[in-house]
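Practice problem. Given the sequence and the SMILES for zinc ion, write out the predicted structure.
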Amino acid sequence: MAGILALDVGGTKIAVGLVDAGGALTYSTARPTRADQGTEAVWSVVAELIDEALERAGGRVDAVGIGSAGPIDLTAGTVSPINIAGWRGFALRDRVAAALPGVPVRLAGDGVCMALGEHRHGAGRGTRSLLGMVVSTGVGGGLILDGAPIHGRTGNAGHVGHVIVDPDGRPCRCGGRGCVETVASGPAMVRWALANGWTPEASKADAQLLAAAAEAGDELALQAFRRGTDALAVMIASVAAVCDLDLVVIGGGVARSGALLFDPLRAALAERAGLDFLAGLQVVPAELGGEAGLVGAAVLATLR
Ligand SMILES: [Zn+2]
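Answer key:
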């Protein structure tokens, strides 16, 4: 068996990997997306990464799995990532298939791939139904229910960043208002802290600096995290009640804050998730880190 080629397409970087039959990532590399340089410039990044991986694989792979930032359209095999302006209805699945004639190609949302990776090879091993989430510059996610990935009608199911936690809240980039992403993403927590008088020590305030301030006991920074984690808890309690989840796995930059995120989140969830069947719901950090998308894309490629 030659192995699986996995692609993880995001707004800031595009990663490629080779995954063996046991799910181990034997090779991976990534390049900046060049999202501001037009349709074909972004494609050339993908094409070069495929060529390099193929050379590593000895010129042959058995299958390809692609996880892409959304929105995507699984019926058409196209992607329109919010942060890649030049890709609107871009025929990613067909372009990759044309570059690798005769090799089956599967596409899914990056949230679904992250969830698949954690479910098969990471923090979700052995669970039946999980929500995989990424909390960083945005809030993304994917669902595994009864052991199977949930794509939905167009491939965008599990997009939990746009669960509304405050009907009268801030406008969201999706066109709605008060989505959890407008409260709990890294930039949203930083924006709230700055608006409420937080004065960071460095000139460029970001979520990492906010986390450091919170860890040092800065009351405003701590409040910003509590506000964010409470919004996440509201969303998680809602999604868990709808989907009857075992587990929530959280990755991404903000999740690397560790106890700063998980302690208040678990406390808030204990208050919010009152249904008996949610009593055993666990919330844990992701295990695969930045590799979950590639590992999950490879799982996608081999699903029956
Ligand atoms: Zn939204």
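Check your answer against the key. The longest strand covers residues 25-32.
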